[in-house]
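Checklist before submission:
- one chain only
- standard amino acids only
- sequence pasted in full

Submission:
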Amino acid sequence: MRRTYDDLVQEADTVSVDGWDFSWLDGRATEERPSWGYTRLLGRRMADARAALDIQTGGGEILAGLPVLPPVTVATESWPPNLKLAASRLRPRGAWVVADDEEPRLPFGSEVFDLVTSRHPVETWWTEIARVLRPGGTYFSQQVGPWSVAELTDYFYGPHDGSSRDPGRARQAAESAGLEVVDLRSERLRMEFRDIGAVIYFLRKVIWIVPGFSVARYQDKLRALHDRIEADGPFIAHSSRFLIEARRPGGQAA
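Returned file contents:
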């Protein structure tokens, strides 16, 4: 039996969106994954590191899933619900979880870590990252690129400027902080939203796609999009991702 619009909205608007686990969308939305395999590459680097820092770790899902963590592993997060989740996942693995603000300064001394990582950071604090890296240390990150999921943003919010997340600008910022970029790749990836509940859940969780989103605020557009999906099939969008790896000169790489 096909679920009604009201049922889909009620469910998606009340389910928890804590953490960075998207399994609730299984069967309801899909997104292609970048060809480079961030988690696999991260696992290799973590296995070789002595001291690692993961910035904006979310609920700790990525780190907790790695087979090996360095002897010293620290993760930062600012959102209280995610802090609790991250602690529950990472403390049993011997990692430290540190509450942090959403702006610099990083609460660590200089030249402490030989590996700093971040998956989908809201903002990259290049100067601070360079400061806490040991000479020869590496910053490794998968980031949201320009115009990511722009189709949804334009539908709900109107045309926007997504160019600030351009990988070329990231290279310039890294080099300005004294780091050497050794790898930079980007891809655009197909997404499908198969019901309006998937759209609502996604926008509640990934809050920068449509700033200020709520069901009440966009109820007319949600109803129209529901009718469109019912008539024409999944709503198609495209995410944008780039991988960047930068090294602090000097010393020996981890």
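Reviewer check: The mean pLDDT is 94.
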